[in-house]
Amino acid sequence: MRILHVASEIFPLVKTGGLADVVGSLPPALARRGLDVRVLLPGLPEVLDGVVDARLVTRIGPIFGAASVTLCAGRLPDSGLPAYLIDAPFLFRRKGNPYTGPDGHDWDDNHRRFGLLGWTAAHLAAGELDPDWTPDVVHAHDWHAGLTPAYVVQSPGLDMPTVFTVHNLAFRGIFPMDYHADLDLPMRRMTPRGMEFHGKLSFMKAGLVYSNKITTVSPNYAREICTPEFGCGLDGVMRDRAGDLSGILNGVDYAVWNPAEARIAKTYSVDDLAGKKICKRALQLEFGLSSEARGPLFAVVSRLTSQKGMDILLAALPELLQEDAQLIVLGTGDGDLEAGFRYAASVNPERVAVCIGYDESMSHRFMAGADILLVPSRFEPCGLTQLYALRYGTLPLVRRVGGLADTVIDVNEENLAAGRATGFVFGEAARHALGARIRDACGFYRNGGEAWTQVQERGMRQDFSWDDSAANYERLYLGLREQKTEERPE
Ligand code: ADP
Asked: 106, 212, 360, 434: least buried by Cβ within 10 Å?
């Protein structure tokens, strides 16, 4: 079965978050199951530099405001999987973040940049761009690839099944409605039953409405997005399409996230945790934190945004400090949250440290050196860092929401007695709830001894590899291929 994945970022070439991790590891997991998988990516500088053996497939010509657009093909650096690249210098050869300019604002031609991604996917699917390869199923990821199913539907005679995966419904890819002409999308689809969203055009909604199947990245988030609380105004669409919606939990690439092999102060494994203590001391030294604290070392590796509950954490910081615990933060995001953490570090230099930035190798040192990873998100489609923490013997402390609720089992009496607890879970997105759970976690750390080690070891043995999830996607593709194309809205 031939599958085309369409996405804007991919680890290790371009990464701003979990989407890149998934696009970097799901296609190889499917290929290991025997599927013929290819990836279509925008030709961002890091992608053009990173793909090996690139060759020209075809010249597409001037389109979407770009004088020159060509389709190239090469292989991805680690997995060796085939990748198609859209080389449109005017649109994509821009340094920095794939979505925003140096001023931090979205590029003002993002509709064309990501419209071209969906357009190319549909024309590749139609067999118009590469005579040697056409997919059986096209799988588009998040709003950046959201127009893919819309272009497939409007391609004459094309009966191509599409899957659309929602990695984060909050980013809906919204543009002025009159951009539809620029994108070669017919006015008759700019309706509430089509891709119109409150008088605007939404790439995310296009993906939801015109795909055959919708998936999201955890079973719990699939339920949540059908409710007004988590549906970002699209919960009605989600409910309409509930029969085609499923949640498939993201996996972890344990070749990348493995404390026995990562570049950390001392490697370790579930059979010998001695190296973890050395990693903790090294991290404390790196950031000038005292080694005398009686409480645990908490860590954050995250976008610093209100989605991630970072404002709640700042508010609960006094509780953490009262327990003689420490906090290290690695992240970038909202200016006021960055400033808040910087200030907290400046007044508690031995107990709070902050690194504002994005640093892949440092994220492994944080996972290895910390005792507890904090993920107090307001909403969380899947969340990957708590899964990485589990493998690194770092207990996650998470809010009971989205994929966090699916993956962390609370340290309470019942779960401890049943031998299944893996971390700390709290409910309300509020300072007092987080603060109380931080205090509980500190108490468990101080009294922990053997109990702490047991929870650690259980977490390290959890298997969130891609095997099961890739099998679920394969089942979905098979079902689609067999099923006759359903009626899709006009
Ligand atoms: P999201 O995609 O919503 O940001 P996820 O938990 O799904 O959240 O994925 C976040 C990914 O980005 C993880 O791989 C995490 O390690 C990484 N990450 C987040 N912030 C940073 C940072 N400042 N430096 C390095 N890696 C980071």
From this structure: 360
